[in-house]
Design brief:
Radius of gyration: 25 Å
Distance between the termini: 63 Å
CATH topology of the largest domain: Protocatechuate 3,4-Dioxygenase, subunit A
CATH class of the largest domain: Mainly Beta
Shape: globular
Helix content: 10-25%
CATH superfamily of the largest domain: Aromatic compound dioxygenase
Number of helices: 1
Number of strands: 9
CATH architecture of the largest domain: Sandwich
Order of helices and strands: HEEEEEEEEE
Strand content: 25-35%
Structural class: alpha+beta
Oligomer: single chain
Number of domains: 2
Largest sheet: 5 strands, mixed
C-alpha cells in the first residue's frame, strides 16, 4: 500500500469514527435521564386491612394531640407509580395503635388522611405505635392515586424482636428509621400499580 493510500484510508476511518461519535452523542442527548427510583419498580406489597379500619378519617398530616404519650416519629417519602413517576394528590390514609397497643375505635385518635404534594411527597407526624399480642409494631395504610386502585398495606419497624414471629410481617415493608433529637424520623416510598 502506498503511503498516500494509507493516509487516505486513515483519514476516512477518522471521519467515520467522528460521525459515529457525533451520532451517539445526539442520540444520548435526546434520551431522558433514568428516574431515581431507589426501591425499584416492584409495586409495594399489599397486606390485610385488619379489624380496626374506620372510613372518613379527618384530613391532617399530624396525628399528634396535646398530652399524647409516646415517642414522636416523622415519616416522609414519595408515592410513585411502578414506572417511577411521582403521583401528585395521592391519598394516604393512616391508622395505628397508641403507645400501649390500643386502637381508638370510638373516635379518630391516631387516624387521619392526607394528600401528596405536586412531586408525590408526603410527611406524617405521629408516635411510634405500641405492640399488641400476636403482632409486631406497625402502621396501617391505604394509598391511592387519583382514580386508581387502593393499595392497602402495613409498614414495619426494623430490629423488632416480634418481627420474626408476626405471621404477616414482610421485610419489603420495613421503614428506614433514625433516632433524632426530638424523637425518630423514618422514610418509605410507595410504588403503586397503574
Amino acid at each position: 500500500m502506498e503511503r498516500r493510500d494509507f493516509f487516505r484510508l486513515l483519514t476516512g476511518m477518522t471521519t467515520a469514527l467522528g460521525m459515529a461519535r457525533t451520532s451517539a452523542l445526539v442520540h444520548a442527548q435526546a434520551l431522558q435521564p433514568t428516574p431515581s427510583c431507589p426501591d425499584g419498580s416492584e409495586p409495594t406489597p399489599r397486606q390485610t386491612e385488619g379489624p380496626y379500619f374506620k372510613p372518613a378519617s379527618p384530613e391532617r398530616a399530624s396525628l399528634l394531640e396535646p398530652g399524647m404519650a409516646g415517642v414522636k416519629i416523622v415519616v416522609t417519602g414519595v408515592v410513585r407509580l411502578a414506572s417511577c413517576q411521582p403521583v401528585p394528590r395521592a391519598l394516604i390514609d393512616v391508622w395505628h395503635a397508641d403507645d400501649r397497643g390500643d386502637y381508638d375505635n370510638a373516635g379518630y385518635r391516631l387516624r387521619g388522611h392526607q394528600f401528596t404534594d405536586d412531586q408525590g411527597r408526603y410527611r406524617l407526624e405521629t408516635i411510634v405505635p405500641g405492640v399488641y399480642p400476636g403482632r409486631t409494631r406497625h402502621f396501617h395504610l391505604k394509598v391511592q392515586a387519583p382514580k386508581g386502585p387502593v393499595l392497602t398495606t402495613q409498614l414495619y419497624f426494623p430490629g423488632e424482636a416480634a418481627n420474626a414471629s408476626d405471621p404477616i410481617f414482610n421485610r419489603a415493608l420495613v421503614l428506614r428509621v433514625r433516632d433524632g433529637a426530638e424523637g425518630k424520623t423514618a422514610t418509605f416510598d410507595f410504588a403503586l400499580r397503574a
